[in-house]
Amino acid sequence: MNNNQTSKKRKVLIVDDEKDICTLLTLSLTRMGVLADTAGSVSEANEILATNKYDFCLTDMRLPDGEGLQIVQNIAANYHELPVAVLTAHANMNNAIAALKAGAFDYLTKPISNQQLEDLLNVAFSLNDIQNKLPKAEIVNQISGSTRNNILDTLIGESESISQLKSLIEKLGRSNVPVYINGESGSGKELVARAIHKLSGRAIKPFIAVNCGAIPESLCESEFFGYRKGSFTGAESDRNGLFQAANGGSLFLDEIADLPPSMQVKLLRAIQEKTIRRVGDTTEIPVDVRIISATHRNLQELINNGDFRQDLYFRLNVLEVYVPPLRERVEDIHSIALHIVKRISPKITITDEAFSKLTKYDYPGNVRELENILERAVAISDGKTVNDKDLWFNPSNNQTDSSIDITGEITNSIRNTAISNNKPLKLDELLDKVKSNIIEKAYTNLNYNLEDTANQLGMPKNQLEDYLKKYNLVN
After folding, report:
1. Stretch 393-418: mean pLDDT, rounded?
2. pLDDT given at position 218
3. Range of the domain at 266
């Protein structure tokens, strides 16, 4: 047991009406160097809490005069820095979720092993240390002295949706259960996962992120669980997997929907048993990992189609977080854009016209797309100011001021050509004139950027170069 570097012993309150369980838990805690008090009812627990200070509370769900949920609610209202976990003999997911939403740190099913208890206490005590800002060098080094506020400040914006998201992240940081993050690509799901980890009792331990869709199916098991030397061709030495790398911390499984069915079964077992077996090994290895998963796909639809296991979904989706797309928080675009440009080049400013243009786009790629747009704009700017002419948007996603209305341009070109010529042009000459006008306008609007113009007009870059030379639009 990691008692941290404090002079006083940790103290735990156990609430259970079964005396045998209280005795066993007390003995286990004593061996770990932890003091324990016990209570047999809701009323007795509330009386003890009013006159004593504890580092952790473990309560049964069903008690003679009420439910453990009432103790969780009392602690959330009056002793909010005290982590409380619910212990139950009945693995009812609805009860567990109700307790977690009320503020419970975790829930466990009886019987609980000594290893589970020790892992639980280590995380809970670490959470206390971070919240109480104890002078612990280990914590300061790992999170660089970060406060709760500047961890949440990585999520830029003051809109109602982002404020609600920050509030939810704070609550999730105080829990120890799996979290499922739902949001579109580029919306910031990994940023949310990192914030949850940094605000949790696991902050001093590793945060390991993995894109499930980037691992070949044949390598999934060895990547997640590791392997023993000689277990397959090329296994020249023992190697730990992602679960062991994240032990004590958080494992972020991005794009969980892309996990092959065979690996879904193995992941479910690892989460349920809290043990893994390396490829080629016969020994189970205990692991203490908080799973945070995410995807931009509709998991319920995949379950209905038989592409994702429902039992795994229930294990992953204990608490859900929705990350809103950028188009649902347009008011945050200004502050996000300023942050991005300042990071790229601190001396560059953005004009009001550019800001106005930025707010009119839908951003199918969300914050990641906004970042790409601004990086390109800074690169082609004068080095001092990003203006509206420096911004280029993907015309296949959205129509903007910088894109070309091809139908309108053809009409205008034909009209202007007819007016400027006394004699009618042949069809080939007319089409050349129209094509020249469209290419010239696109090339000018996009600040003579060859690649951007080719993308907007939907032609290869070398073909555009040939046209520019043909129509004398380049020197």
Report:
1. 53
2. 87
3. 158-323
Q: Which residue has the tokens 């502050």?
A: 335
pTM equals 0.72
Domain co-membership, 297 together with 253: yes
Q: What is the 3-state secondary structure (H, E, C) of the chain?
A: CCCCCCCCCCEEEEECCCHHHHHHHHHHHHHCCCEEEEECCHHHHHHHHHHCCCCEEEEECEECCEEHHHHHHHHHHHCCCCCEEEEECCCCHHHHHHHHHHCCCEEEECCCCHHHHHHHHHHHHHHHHHHHCCCCHHHHHHHCCCCHHHHHCCCCCCCHHHHHHHHHHHHHHCCCCCEEEEECCCCCHHHHHHHHHHCCCCCCCCEEEEEHHHCCHHHHHHHHHEECCCCCCCCCCCEECHHHHCCCCEEEEECHHHCCHHHHHHHHHHHHHCEECCECCCCCEECCCEEEEEECCCHHHHHHCCCCCHHHHHHHCCEEEEECCHHHCHHHHHHHHHHHHHHHCCCCEECHHHHHHHCCCCCCCHHHHHHHHHHHHHHHCCCCEECHHHCCCCCCCCCCCCCCCHHHHHHHHHHHHHHHCCCCCCHHHHHHHHHHHHHHHHHHHCCCCHHHHHHHHCCCHHHHHHHHHHCCCCC
- Summarised one tens digit per residue, pLDDT across range 437-471 is 888 878 877 777 887 787 777 677 778 888 888 88
Confidence check: pLDDT of 139 > 50: no
Mark which of 136, 167, 189 sits at the end of a domain.
Answer: 136
- Could you tell me if 175 and 317 lie in one domain? yes
The pair of three-digit structure tokens given for residue 164, joined into one six-digit string: 């609600």
| Res 412 pLDDT > 70 | no
- Are 102 and 76 in contact by the 8 Å Cβ rule? The answer is yes
Residue 166 shares a structural domain with residue 309: yes
Q: Is residue 185 part of a domain?
A: yes
**Residue from 336, 404, 347 nearest 369 by CA:** 336
In this structure, what CATH number is given to the domain that contains residue 360? 1.10.8.60
Q: Are 308 and 174 contained in the same domain?
A: yes
Q: Does residue 391 surpass a pLDDT of 50?
A: yes
Note whether 235 and 260 are same-domain residues.
Answer: yes
Residue 146 within any structural domain of the chain: no
Residues 200 and 333 placed together within one structural domain of the fold: no
- Based on the domain organization, do 381 and 414 belong to the same domain? no
Looking up residue 197, the CATH number of its domain turns out to be: 3.40.50.300
**Within-domain flag for 72:** yes
Please give the tally of structural domains in the chain. 4
**Each residue's pLDDT tens digit, 300-324:** 999 999 999 999 998 898 889 999 9
Locus of tokens 């286990």: 28
Residues 364 and 425 in one domain: no
